[in-house]
Protein backbone atom coordinates (compact mmCIF):
# COMPACT_ATOMS: atom_id res chain seq x y z
CA UNK A 1 0.00 0.00 0.00
CA UNK A 2 1.21 3.51 -0.82
CA UNK A 3 2.27 5.81 1.97
CA UNK A 4 -0.76 7.11 3.87
CA UNK A 5 -0.28 10.81 3.04
CA UNK A 6 -0.09 10.30 -0.73
CA UNK A 7 -3.03 7.89 -0.61
CA UNK A 8 -5.14 10.37 1.37
CA UNK A 9 -4.16 13.26 -0.92
CA UNK A 10 -5.12 11.33 -4.06
CA UNK A 11 -8.43 10.14 -2.66
CA UNK A 12 -9.46 13.54 -1.29
CA UNK A 13 -8.59 15.27 -4.57
CA UNK A 14 -10.58 12.62 -6.41
CA UNK A 15 -13.59 13.34 -4.19
CA UNK A 16 -13.31 17.12 -4.40
CA UNK A 17 -12.29 17.37 -8.01
CA UNK A 18 -9.62 19.99 -7.25
CA UNK A 19 -5.97 19.89 -6.05
CA UNK A 20 -5.39 20.14 -2.31
CA UNK A 21 -3.81 23.54 -1.48
CA UNK A 22 -2.18 22.23 1.72
CA UNK A 23 0.25 19.43 2.47
CA UNK A 24 -0.84 16.30 4.29
CA UNK A 25 1.33 14.70 6.96
CA UNK A 26 -0.04 11.32 8.03
CA UNK A 27 0.28 9.12 11.10
CA UNK A 28 3.00 7.00 9.44
CA UNK A 29 5.26 10.04 9.01
CA UNK A 30 4.66 10.32 5.27
CA UNK A 31 3.97 13.68 3.59
CA UNK A 32 2.40 14.77 0.32
CA UNK A 33 1.32 18.04 -1.22
CA UNK A 34 2.70 21.44 -2.22
CA UNK A 35 6.19 22.05 -0.75
CA UNK A 36 6.32 24.97 1.65
CA UNK A 37 2.54 25.03 2.20
CA UNK A 38 1.05 24.60 5.69
CA UNK A 39 0.45 20.97 6.56
CA UNK A 40 -2.76 19.29 7.68
CA UNK A 41 -1.51 16.75 10.20
CA UNK A 42 -3.65 13.60 10.24
CA UNK A 43 -2.57 11.99 13.50
CA UNK A 44 -4.51 8.73 13.19
CA UNK A 45 -7.04 6.77 11.16
CA UNK A 46 -9.79 7.96 13.48
CA UNK A 47 -9.58 11.39 11.83
CA UNK A 48 -10.49 9.81 8.51
CA UNK A 49 -13.40 7.93 10.08
CA UNK A 50 -14.72 11.19 11.54
CA UNK A 51 -14.75 12.76 8.08
CA UNK A 52 -16.37 9.72 6.49
CA UNK A 53 -19.22 9.61 8.98
CA UNK A 54 -19.66 13.41 9.08
CA UNK A 55 -18.26 14.94 5.89
CA UNK A 56 -17.64 18.68 5.85
CA UNK A 57 -17.14 21.26 8.54
CA UNK A 58 -18.47 19.35 11.54
CA UNK A 59 -16.37 16.27 10.81
CA UNK A 60 -13.26 18.44 10.51
CA UNK A 61 -14.18 20.25 13.72
CA UNK A 62 -14.63 17.01 15.65
CA UNK A 63 -11.27 15.72 14.47
CA UNK A 64 -9.60 19.04 15.40
CA UNK A 65 -11.16 19.24 18.86
CA UNK A 66 -10.31 15.61 19.62
CA UNK A 67 -6.69 16.18 18.59
CA UNK A 68 -6.94 13.80 15.62
CA UNK A 69 -6.15 16.67 13.24
CA UNK A 70 -3.71 19.54 13.64
CA UNK A 71 -2.11 22.23 11.50
CA UNK A 72 1.64 22.59 11.10
CA UNK A 73 2.78 26.00 9.95
CA UNK A 74 0.86 29.26 9.67
CA UNK A 75 -2.61 28.63 11.12
CA UNK A 76 -4.20 31.59 9.33
CA UNK A 77 -2.69 30.65 5.96
CA UNK A 78 -3.89 27.06 6.34
CA UNK A 79 -7.43 28.09 7.26
CA UNK A 80 -7.50 30.57 4.40
CA UNK A 81 -6.48 27.90 1.90
CA UNK A 82 -8.87 25.31 3.29
CA UNK A 83 -11.81 27.71 3.42
CA UNK A 84 -12.10 27.44 -0.35
CA UNK A 85 -12.71 23.71 0.04
CA UNK A 86 -14.87 23.65 3.16
CA UNK A 87 -16.86 26.89 3.26
CA UNK A 88 -16.77 28.35 -0.25
CA UNK A 89 -17.78 25.54 -2.59
CA UNK A 90 -21.04 27.15 -3.59
CA UNK A 91 -19.96 26.89 -7.22
CA UNK A 92 -20.23 23.09 -6.99
CA UNK A 93 -23.88 22.63 -7.85
CA UNK A 94 -23.89 18.82 -7.95
CA UNK A 95 -26.49 17.24 -5.74
CA UNK A 96 -25.61 14.50 -3.27
CA UNK A 97 -27.41 12.00 -5.52
CA UNK A 98 -25.30 13.07 -8.52
CA UNK A 99 -22.12 12.70 -6.48
CA UNK A 100 -23.12 9.23 -5.25
CA UNK A 101 -23.81 8.14 -8.84
CA UNK A 102 -20.37 9.32 -9.95
CA UNK A 103 -18.17 6.19 -10.28
CA UNK A 104 -15.01 8.15 -9.39
CA UNK A 105 -16.60 9.51 -6.22
CA UNK A 106 -17.75 6.05 -5.19
CA UNK A 107 -14.30 4.63 -5.85
CA UNK A 108 -12.65 7.39 -3.81
CA UNK A 109 -15.06 6.84 -0.94
CA UNK A 110 -14.30 3.11 -0.94
CA UNK A 111 -10.62 3.94 -0.89
CA UNK A 112 -11.03 6.18 2.14
CA UNK A 113 -12.96 3.45 3.94
CA UNK A 114 -9.98 1.12 3.42
CA UNK A 115 -7.57 3.74 4.70
CA UNK A 116 -9.77 4.52 7.74
CA UNK A 117 -9.81 0.95 8.97
CA UNK A 118 -12.65 -0.46 11.07
CA UNK A 119 -15.71 1.56 9.97
CA UNK A 120 -17.19 2.51 13.32
CA UNK A 121 -18.25 6.13 13.93
CA UNK A 122 -16.10 7.71 16.68
CA UNK A 123 -18.03 9.37 19.48
CA UNK A 124 -18.10 13.19 19.27
CA UNK A 125 -15.71 15.00 21.63
CA UNK A 126 -17.19 15.74 25.05
CA UNK A 127 -16.93 19.48 24.33
CA UNK A 128 -19.70 19.20 21.72
CA UNK A 129 -23.12 20.43 22.81
CA UNK A 130 -25.73 17.71 22.62
CA UNK A 131 -29.29 18.95 22.56
CA UNK A 132 -32.42 19.21 20.47
CA UNK A 133 -33.25 22.43 18.66
CA UNK A 134 -36.97 22.40 19.43
CA UNK A 135 -37.07 25.06 22.16
CA UNK A 136 -34.59 27.71 21.16
CA UNK A 137 -34.17 30.88 23.18
CA UNK A 138 -36.33 30.07 26.14
CA UNK A 139 -34.92 31.52 29.35
CA UNK A 140 -33.74 28.06 30.37
CA UNK A 141 -32.06 27.24 27.05
CA UNK A 142 -30.39 30.66 26.96
CA UNK A 143 -28.95 30.08 30.44
CA UNK A 144 -27.50 26.74 29.32
CA UNK A 145 -26.05 28.25 26.14
CA UNK A 146 -24.45 31.16 27.99
CA UNK A 147 -23.03 28.82 30.63
CA UNK A 148 -21.48 26.61 27.95
CA UNK A 149 -19.60 29.54 26.45
CA UNK A 150 -18.77 31.78 29.39
CA UNK A 151 -18.44 29.41 32.35
CA UNK A 152 -15.20 27.99 31.01
CA UNK A 153 -13.14 29.46 33.82
CA UNK A 154 -12.22 33.06 34.51
CA UNK A 155 -8.52 32.17 34.63
CA UNK A 156 -8.76 30.89 31.07
CA UNK A 157 -10.43 34.08 29.87
CA UNK A 158 -7.74 36.14 31.63
CA UNK A 159 -5.19 34.44 29.37
CA UNK A 160 -7.16 35.17 26.20
CA UNK A 161 -8.49 38.66 26.92
CA UNK A 162 -5.63 40.11 28.91
CA UNK A 163 -5.99 42.68 31.72
CA UNK A 164 -8.95 44.52 30.14
CA UNK A 165 -11.22 41.43 30.41
CA UNK A 166 -13.34 42.80 27.57
CA UNK A 167 -14.79 40.12 25.28
CA UNK A 168 -15.92 42.18 22.30
CA UNK A 169 -14.32 44.03 19.42
CA UNK A 170 -11.74 46.62 20.48
CA UNK A 171 -11.47 50.06 18.87
CA UNK A 172 -7.97 50.48 17.47
CA UNK A 173 -6.27 53.87 17.09
CA UNK A 174 -3.57 52.09 15.06
CA UNK A 175 -2.79 48.43 14.27
CA UNK A 176 0.30 48.48 16.49
CA UNK A 177 -1.51 49.81 19.58
CA UNK A 178 -1.83 47.60 22.65
CA UNK A 179 -4.96 45.53 23.14
CA UNK A 180 -5.55 47.21 26.49
CA UNK A 181 -5.42 50.68 24.89
CA UNK A 182 -7.80 49.62 22.12
CA UNK A 183 -10.29 48.12 24.58
CA UNK A 184 -10.19 51.21 26.78
CA UNK A 185 -10.84 53.35 23.70
CA UNK A 186 -13.85 51.15 22.90
CA UNK A 187 -15.31 51.58 26.40
CA UNK A 188 -14.72 55.32 26.16
CA UNK A 189 -16.37 55.48 22.73
CA UNK A 190 -19.49 53.74 24.06
CA UNK A 191 -19.76 56.12 27.00
CA UNK A 192 -19.37 59.15 24.72
CA UNK A 193 -21.96 57.89 22.27
CA UNK A 194 -24.38 57.40 25.15
CA UNK A 195 -23.54 60.93 26.42
CA UNK A 196 -23.28 59.70 30.00
CA UNK A 197 -23.31 62.25 32.82
CA UNK A 198 -23.00 62.03 36.59
CA UNK A 199 -26.01 60.55 38.37
CA UNK A 200 -27.57 58.86 35.34
CA UNK A 201 -28.66 55.21 35.35
CA UNK A 202 -27.02 52.87 32.82
CA UNK A 203 -28.18 49.33 32.06
CA UNK A 204 -25.36 47.13 30.74
CA UNK A 205 -27.03 44.15 29.03
CA UNK A 206 -24.63 41.23 28.87
CA UNK A 207 -22.12 42.93 31.15
CA UNK A 208 -19.46 40.23 30.94
CA UNK A 209 -16.74 40.62 33.54
CA UNK A 210 -17.83 44.16 34.42
CA UNK A 211 -15.35 46.25 32.42
CA UNK A 212 -17.84 48.68 30.86
CA UNK A 213 -19.83 49.02 34.09
CA UNK A 214 -16.68 49.86 36.05
CA UNK A 215 -15.41 52.30 33.42
CA UNK A 216 -18.74 54.12 33.18
CA UNK A 217 -19.13 54.41 36.94
CA UNK A 218 -15.54 55.44 37.61
CA UNK A 219 -15.03 57.86 34.70
CA UNK A 220 -18.55 59.26 34.25
CA UNK A 221 -20.11 58.96 37.70
CA UNK A 222 -23.15 56.99 36.54
CA UNK A 223 -25.04 54.31 38.45
CA UNK A 224 -24.85 51.01 36.60
CA UNK A 225 -26.86 47.80 36.64
CA UNK A 226 -25.01 45.05 34.78
CA UNK A 227 -26.81 41.82 33.91
CA UNK A 228 -25.42 38.47 32.77
CA UNK A 229 -26.60 34.86 32.74
CA UNK A 230 -23.15 33.57 33.66
CA UNK A 231 -22.59 32.83 37.33
CA UNK A 232 -18.81 32.88 36.87
CA UNK A 233 -18.85 36.23 35.11
CA UNK A 234 -21.05 37.74 37.80
CA UNK A 235 -18.81 36.55 40.64
CA UNK A 236 -15.72 37.91 38.90
CA UNK A 237 -17.39 41.24 38.05
CA UNK A 238 -18.63 41.73 41.62
CA UNK A 239 -15.13 41.23 43.00
CA UNK A 240 -13.72 43.74 40.53
CA UNK A 241 -16.42 46.26 41.47
CA UNK A 242 -15.60 45.80 45.15
CA UNK A 243 -11.87 46.13 44.53
CA UNK A 244 -12.53 49.44 42.71
CA UNK A 245 -14.64 50.72 45.62
CA UNK A 246 -17.69 51.09 43.38
CA UNK A 247 -20.26 48.91 45.12
CA UNK A 248 -22.40 51.99 45.79
CA UNK A 249 -22.63 52.69 42.06
CA UNK A 250 -22.46 49.30 40.32
CA UNK A 251 -24.81 46.35 40.82
CA UNK A 252 -24.11 43.08 38.99
CA UNK A 253 -27.07 40.73 38.60
CA UNK A 254 -27.53 37.23 37.23
CA UNK A 255 -30.66 38.13 35.30
CA UNK A 256 -32.30 37.68 31.90
CA UNK A 257 -32.94 40.86 29.94
CA UNK A 258 -36.62 39.86 29.85
CA UNK A 259 -36.80 40.02 33.63
CA UNK A 260 -35.37 43.47 34.36
CA UNK A 261 -38.13 45.21 36.41
CA UNK A 262 -36.68 48.56 37.39
CA UNK A 263 -36.66 50.90 34.39
CA UNK A 264 -36.56 53.48 33.14
CA UNK A 265 -32.84 53.91 32.52
CA UNK A 266 -31.16 56.97 31.06
CA UNK A 267 -29.02 54.83 28.76
CA UNK A 268 -28.60 51.19 27.75
CA UNK A 269 -25.53 49.44 26.36
CA UNK A 270 -25.78 46.02 24.75
CA UNK A 271 -22.30 44.97 23.65
CA UNK A 272 -21.76 41.57 22.04
CA UNK A 273 -24.96 40.22 23.54
CA UNK A 274 -27.61 40.51 20.81
CA UNK A 275 -26.00 37.64 18.86
CA UNK A 276 -27.41 35.32 21.56
CA UNK A 277 -31.00 36.59 21.25
CA UNK A 278 -32.13 34.72 18.14
CA UNK A 279 -34.14 35.88 15.14
CA UNK A 280 -37.52 34.86 16.57
CA UNK A 281 -36.83 36.80 19.77
CA UNK A 282 -35.16 39.88 18.34
CA UNK A 283 -38.21 42.13 18.15
CA UNK A 284 -39.10 41.16 21.72
CA UNK A 285 -35.55 42.02 22.77
CA UNK A 286 -35.76 45.43 21.05
CA UNK A 287 -39.15 46.15 22.58
CA UNK A 288 -37.91 45.22 26.06
CA UNK A 289 -34.97 47.62 25.75
CA UNK A 290 -37.27 50.33 24.44
CA UNK A 291 -39.55 49.81 27.44
CA UNK A 292 -36.62 50.04 29.85
CA UNK A 293 -35.33 53.30 28.39
CA UNK A 294 -36.68 56.69 29.37
CA UNK A 295 -37.92 59.07 26.62
CA UNK A 296 -34.86 60.76 25.16
CA UNK A 297 -32.57 57.95 26.36
CA UNK A 298 -30.00 56.33 24.11
CA UNK A 299 -29.26 52.70 23.23
CA UNK A 300 -25.85 51.58 22.01
CA UNK A 301 -26.18 48.16 20.33
CA UNK A 302 -22.80 46.62 19.42
CA UNK A 303 -23.43 43.50 17.32
CA UNK A 304 -21.82 41.14 14.82
CA UNK A 305 -23.62 41.00 11.46
CA UNK A 306 -23.54 38.53 8.59
CA UNK A 307 -23.93 39.30 4.92
CA UNK A 308 -27.54 39.16 3.68
CA UNK A 309 -28.59 36.22 1.51
CA UNK A 310 -30.76 36.28 -1.59
CA UNK A 311 -33.01 33.74 0.11
CA UNK A 312 -32.97 34.49 3.83
CA UNK A 313 -34.95 31.33 4.56
CA UNK A 314 -31.88 29.30 3.54
CA UNK A 315 -29.73 30.75 6.32
CA UNK A 316 -28.32 28.13 8.65
CA UNK A 317 -26.13 28.48 11.70
CA UNK A 318 -22.46 27.57 11.30
CA UNK A 319 -22.15 23.93 12.44
CA UNK A 320 -18.86 24.28 14.29
CA UNK A 321 -19.83 27.49 16.07
CA UNK A 322 -23.22 26.08 17.06
CA UNK A 323 -21.85 22.78 18.34
CA UNK A 324 -18.76 24.01 20.16
CA UNK A 325 -18.74 27.77 20.70
CA UNK A 326 -22.04 29.68 20.79
CA UNK A 327 -24.93 27.20 21.04
CA UNK A 328 -28.10 28.71 19.56
CA UNK A 329 -26.26 31.87 18.51
CA UNK A 330 -27.53 33.55 15.36
CA UNK A 331 -26.22 36.37 13.21
CA UNK A 332 -28.49 38.79 11.37
CA UNK A 333 -27.76 41.23 8.55
CA UNK A 334 -27.30 44.84 9.65
CA UNK A 335 -30.43 45.93 7.80
CA UNK A 336 -32.52 43.40 9.69
CA UNK A 337 -31.18 44.64 13.03
CA UNK A 338 -31.87 48.28 12.19
CA UNK A 339 -35.36 47.38 10.95
CA UNK A 340 -36.24 45.53 14.15
CA UNK A 341 -35.01 48.40 16.32
CA UNK A 342 -37.15 50.80 14.30
CA UNK A 343 -40.17 48.50 14.57
CA UNK A 344 -39.76 48.56 18.35
CA UNK A 345 -40.01 52.36 18.28
CA UNK A 346 -36.36 53.46 18.25
CA UNK A 347 -35.01 56.21 16.03
CA UNK A 348 -31.70 54.95 14.65
CA UNK A 349 -29.28 57.88 14.59
CA UNK A 350 -25.91 56.42 13.72
CA UNK A 351 -24.31 53.21 12.48
CA UNK A 352 -20.53 52.77 12.69
CA UNK A 353 -19.00 49.75 10.98
CA UNK A 354 -15.82 48.58 12.70
CA UNK A 355 -15.26 45.26 10.91
CA UNK A 356 -11.48 45.63 10.49
CA UNK A 357 -11.14 46.29 14.22
CA UNK A 358 -12.43 42.81 15.05
CA UNK A 359 -9.82 41.09 12.89
CA UNK A 360 -7.11 42.93 14.82
CA UNK A 361 -8.77 42.05 18.14
CA UNK A 362 -9.10 38.35 17.39
CA UNK A 363 -5.51 38.03 16.24
CA UNK A 364 -4.36 39.50 19.57
CA UNK A 365 -6.57 37.06 21.47
CA UNK A 366 -5.14 34.13 19.50
CA UNK A 367 -1.61 35.38 20.20
CA UNK A 368 -2.41 35.62 23.92
CA UNK A 369 -3.75 32.06 23.91
CA UNK A 370 -0.79 30.65 22.01
CA UNK A 371 1.70 32.47 24.24
CA UNK A 372 0.35 30.64 27.32
CA UNK A 373 -0.83 27.47 25.59
CA UNK A 374 0.24 24.82 28.15
CA UNK A 375 -1.49 26.70 30.98
CA UNK A 376 -4.59 27.31 28.86
CA UNK A 377 -4.87 23.57 28.18
CA UNK A 378 -4.53 22.80 31.89
CA UNK A 379 -7.23 25.31 32.82
CA UNK A 380 -9.84 24.60 30.13
CA UNK A 381 -8.79 21.17 28.91
CA UNK A 382 -7.01 20.44 25.62
CA UNK A 383 -10.23 20.10 23.62
CA UNK A 384 -11.73 23.38 24.80
CA UNK A 385 -8.45 25.22 24.23
CA UNK A 386 -8.36 23.88 20.65
CA UNK A 387 -11.96 25.03 20.14
CA UNK A 388 -11.09 28.58 21.12
CA UNK A 389 -7.93 28.73 19.02
CA UNK A 390 -9.71 27.49 15.90
CA UNK A 391 -12.81 29.63 16.23
CA UNK A 392 -10.95 32.86 16.97
CA UNK A 393 -8.48 32.37 14.11
CA UNK A 394 -11.23 31.44 11.66
CA UNK A 395 -13.35 34.41 12.76
CA UNK A 396 -10.41 36.78 12.32
CA UNK A 397 -10.23 35.73 8.67
CA UNK A 398 -13.99 36.01 8.27
CA UNK A 399 -13.91 39.63 9.43
CA UNK A 400 -10.87 40.45 7.33
CA UNK A 401 -12.48 39.03 4.18
CA UNK A 402 -15.84 40.75 4.78
CA UNK A 403 -17.76 37.52 5.33
CA UNK A 404 -19.05 39.00 8.58
CA UNK A 405 -18.92 42.46 10.13
CA UNK A 406 -19.56 44.25 13.40
CA UNK A 407 -21.46 47.48 13.91
CA UNK A 408 -22.30 49.94 16.64
CA UNK A 409 -25.88 51.14 16.21
CA UNK A 410 -26.86 54.21 18.21
CA UNK A 411 -30.60 54.62 18.67
CA UNK A 412 -32.79 56.98 20.67
CA UNK A 413 -36.19 56.58 22.27
CA UNK A 414 -37.21 59.87 20.75
CA UNK A 415 -40.11 61.59 22.54
CA UNK A 416 -43.32 62.38 20.67
CA UNK A 417 -42.24 66.01 20.32
CA UNK A 418 -39.25 64.88 18.24
CA UNK A 419 -36.44 66.25 20.43
CA UNK A 420 -33.82 63.54 20.07
CA UNK A 421 -31.21 65.29 22.21
CA UNK A 422 -28.59 64.50 19.57
CA UNK A 423 -26.02 67.11 18.50
CA UNK A 424 -26.27 68.45 14.95
CA UNK A 425 -22.91 66.84 14.18
CA UNK A 426 -23.22 63.52 15.93
CA UNK A 427 -19.79 62.19 15.03
CA UNK A 428 -18.19 64.70 17.39
CA UNK A 429 -19.94 62.74 20.17
CA UNK A 430 -20.56 65.84 22.21
CA UNK A 431 -22.96 65.87 25.12
From TrEMBL:
It holds the Pfam family CMAS. Keywords: Lipid metabolism, Methyltransferase, S-adenosyl-L-methionine, Transferase. Residues 156-389 form the Polyketide synthase-like methyltransferase domain. Belongs to the CFA/CMAS family. This is Cyclopropane-fatty-acyl-phospholipid synthase family protein.
Amino acid sequence: MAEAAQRLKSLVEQLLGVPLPVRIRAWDGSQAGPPGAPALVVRNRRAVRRLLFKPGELGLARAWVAGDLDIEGDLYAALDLMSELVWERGEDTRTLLQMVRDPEVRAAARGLVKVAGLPLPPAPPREEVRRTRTHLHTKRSDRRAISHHYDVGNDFYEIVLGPSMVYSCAYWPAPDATLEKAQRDKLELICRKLSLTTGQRLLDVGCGWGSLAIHAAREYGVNVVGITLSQEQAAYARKRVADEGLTDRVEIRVQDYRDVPDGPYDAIASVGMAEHVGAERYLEYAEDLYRLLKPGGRLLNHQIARRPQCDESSYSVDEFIDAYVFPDGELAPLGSTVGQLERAGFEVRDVEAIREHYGLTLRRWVANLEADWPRAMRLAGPGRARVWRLYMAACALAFEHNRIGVNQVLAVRTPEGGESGMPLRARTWGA
